Amino acid sequence: MGRLLAACLRRQLLLAVRRPVEVVNPLVFFLLVVMLFPLGIGPDPRQLTEFAPAVLWIVALLATLLAVEGMFRGDFDDGTLEQLVLAPQPLFLPALTYVFAHWLLTGLPLTLLSPLFALMLQLPGKAIGTLMLSLLLGTAVLSLIGGIGAALTVGLKRGGILISLLIIPFYVPVLIFGSAAVQFAAAGNSAQPQLLVLGGMLSLAVALAPFAIAAGLRISVDAG
Amino acid sequence: MWTWFHKFGSPPWLYSIAGSILRWLVPITVILLAVGAVWGLLYAPPDFRQGNSYRIMFVHVPASVVALAGYYVMATAGAVSLIWRMKMADIALRSCAPIGAMLTFLGLLSGAVWGKPTWGTWWVWDARVTSMLVLFFLYVGIIALYEAFDNEELAGKACAVLSLVGTVNIPIIYKSVDWWYSLHQPASIKFTEDSTMDGSMLRPLLLMIVAFYCLFASSLLLYMRSEILRRESSTNWVRKLVLAKAGQGSANAV
Amino acid sequence: MTAAAHAEPLLKVHGLELERGGRVLLSDFSLEIYPGEVMMLEGENGSGKTSLLRTLAGLARYGYSGGLQCNADSLLYLGHKAGVKTLLTPRENLRWYCSVQNLPLAGLDAALQSVELTGYEDIPCHNLSAGQQRRVNLARLYLSEAPLWLLDEPFTAIDRAGVKRLADVIAARAAAGGAVVLTSHQPLPSDYPVRRVSIARQERS
């Protein structure tokens, strides 16, 4: 069991190392959209400060959404997903590994780079710790939920925008509590309750999403 | 249990049983809707603050309540479809989605119409309206996913998984949106909550809710019947049915 | 081979009805596959050979009715898709496969040698030719310990000598008490007895 998980994780990371542009793309996307907001709102630092928590969180959400579509795409196209489905072990374990690898390659770098974006958007320094913590927990939930959408649509030739339609409604609670946490911190209040709620969502998602992902993958492999 | 499920899984049986239920369910729905509408719109007393504009509640609240319940009906069908692999459950799921989406849309529309005289604007990011909007997109997602699959059986299973994910998420979404609204809105603008509603308004409202449940059930059965015919169109029993109907028609004409 | 008559079937299909895209491909199809058998599924294009194999493998779990009982604890399925990650080297690809199937890594070099990929073990697969990539996928046959093999057109893009070697592996697997079901447009170049099962095209009445 451990061998399977280690092998899957190792393979996903190896693939990312061989094609690093797939890891960098969401980050560049994040940066680009962060640049768009001041252009749209205006350079007034007070206004930017006000919008920064929401902007940072929405952009992080969109960047994850963009990346999540490819979570199983390559494996489906070349047929290695079939081999995984036929493995004697239950499918939800490798599914969880794929999500974890995906989070390591998108959510975690986004979180680590977020202070830079926060400074560009004039987010008060005292909120940066909360921003990182909320993104750390929140992007993991986003990857897990996104994995369900990716698993359900990977067998479709015209997946594309469909996955956004399926997943964005489920992202609503994460966005609400994630951006609220940063807003609270920026206003000088404790964001602990919001972070705890995000932690709760993460626990629930870790417990349930792998099963939905496994079910989705089986259906998609069937369709292929 | 098993034989019953087997029967339930057979299209001709479901088609005919749905037909006999509809024979009395449709009249009941029409009567309930008519009585509820007349009672609510004409006889219930006007609200002391909102005047007559509150009466749109008799459409808005039942539509919203049944739209939400419809999602759970759909998810139940999804669970049955995944566990017992019943094709008829797929048909129920497929039929629930557009009806639920329409009810949600009606809830949103009536909410907007109600918002104009109450708040002076067509759209307010009120907790209930926002949750309804998310629910609407959940329904749209199910329909879009179903339509994206070439294979209808797999489409049903994929939608079943998605609807089950939705059932876990809906309470979280509703609670989050409630919390978000309470965070951003002062309590004074809060909606007139149903808790203090007078019996003279509550009774027609409850009647309308029951009427909308009946409306949902009869639309669902009608939709399922047409779905069954569409999917089974190449089978013998449907051919026989159509020929029998045609025979009846020509006999009547004579 | 001689024990076949008494042994439990590895795979038992009873009254299978297979439907794909609203079309009935097979109806009331029954089949038993015993250890020691090599079975060739025959039928014209679109007769449902691939669908049947995918159903037997458990990849297609919907769109059929009837009984399907698999007594093999693991199986090997070789389909139309490459089954190879082009960013990874042949060795990495097979190492992952071994981990997924919980197989020992010891036979890896021998397997790569058997499909004549010695010297190419550590070159990313996208630098290999189509035939070589195909052979990376076929190397799984040399690693597998599964008693049941389901092979969909295993000889595609393989030269004559390669086909002969593949036929030998298939025969060896059956002789060792396994069973192999395959589809192919060419006869198996082997002396091993092959059971032919024809899938007649059936139209819905």
UniProtKB/TrEMBL annotation, chain A:
Family: Belongs to the CcmB/CycW/HelB family.
Mode of membrane association: Multi-pass membrane protein
Protein name, per record: Heme exporter protein B
Alphabetized InterPro entries for the sequence: Cyt_c_biogenesis_CcmB, Cyt_c_CcmB_bac
Source organism per UniProt: Candidatus Litorirhabdus singularis
Pfam families the UniProt entry points to: CcmB
Keywords (A to Z) from UniProt: Cell inner membrane, Cell membrane, Cytochrome c-type biogenesis, Membrane, Transmembrane, Transmembrane helix, Transport
Role: Required for the export of heme to the periplasm for the biogenesis of c-type cytochromes.
Residue stretches spanning the membrane: 26-42, 54-72, 92-119, 131-155, 161-183, 195-217
Localization (cell): Cell inner membrane
TrEMBL record, chain B:
UniProt keyword annotations, A-Z: Cell inner membrane, Cell membrane, Cytochrome c-type biogenesis, Membrane, Transmembrane, Transmembrane helix, Transport
Keyword Transcription recorded: no
Transmembrane stretches, start-end: 21-44, 56-84, 96-115, 127-146, 158-174, 205-224
Domain (Cytochrome c assembly protein): residue spans on this chain: 14-183
Matches recorded under InterPro entries: Cyt_c_assembly (IPR002541), Cyt_c_biogenesis_CcmC (IPR003557), Cyt_c_biogenesis_CcsA/CcmC (IPR045062)
Statement: the UniProt record of this protein carries the keyword Transmembrane: yes
Subcellular compartments: Cell inner membrane; Membrane
Topological category with respect to the lipid bilayer: Multi-pass membrane protein
Recorded family membership: Belongs to the CcmC/CycZ/HelC family.
Function: Required for the export of heme to the periplasm for the biogenesis of c-type cytochromes.
Cited PANTHER family: CYTOCHROME B_B6 PROTEIN-RELATED, HEME EXPORTER PROTEIN C
Name this protein carries in UniProt: Heme exporter protein C
Gene, per the UniProt record: ccmC
TrEMBL record, chain C:
Database matches in SUPFAM superfamilies: P-loop containing nucleoside triphosphate hydrolases
PROSITE patterns recorded: ABC_TRANSPORTER_1, ABC_TRANSPORTER_2
Entry keywords, A to Z: ATP-binding, Cytochrome c-type biogenesis, Membrane, Nucleotide-binding, Translocase, Transport
Record keyword Ribonucleoprotein present: no
Residue ranges of every copy of the ABC transporter domain listed in the record: 11-205
Keyword Membrane among record annotations: yes
InterPro entries documented for this protein: AAA+_ATPase, ABC_transporter-like_ATP-bd, ABC_transporter-like_CS, ABC_transptr_haem_export_CcmA, P-loop_NTPase
PANTHER family named among the record's database cross-references: ABC TRANSPORTER I FAMILY MEMBER 1 (PTHR43499)
Record protein name field: Cytochrome c biogenesis heme-transporting ATPase CcmA
Source species: Candidatus Litorirhabdus singularis
Gene name of this polypeptide: ccmA
